[in-house]
Task: structure prediction
Amino acid sequence: MAITWAQRLRNLRETLGQEPTIDELVDAAVIHQMTPGAEISEEDKTAALFVQQKAQIGTIYANRLSDPNEDHRVQRKYYENVRNEILVLLDGIDDESYRGFAAHCGIKMCIAGGDDVVAKALLAGVRDETTREQIISDVPRFSATGGTNSSS
Result:
């Protein structure tokens, strides 16, 4: 029997006795079957996992921006190329749980790259409250401000 994503997260929290980590959320997303009648495309799942991999690569470039032995201009260009690819991929993901997961990966990469404006814009696009709370708890800068503010 298929359960909703919210039910799966609730069960995961009860089993763990705490909030799940991003890796635990990834594992849950991979095995999750959508509620009957809700179609999820393989393209959404593949795109979300591709965003995760791209974000890991982008984070490597972002971390090199603080290395005095690296050419910062080149590393910034590589980082921005990956970021832009992620933004395009995110736009094509229709399933909210996969989109939220992919946005979370992109947000962490943007924070590493000092791209707070893009990170906040990505957070603003996350509609699932549970995912938003997880992101806010994972990103200390967002915790201090409560995430994004619709009036700003």
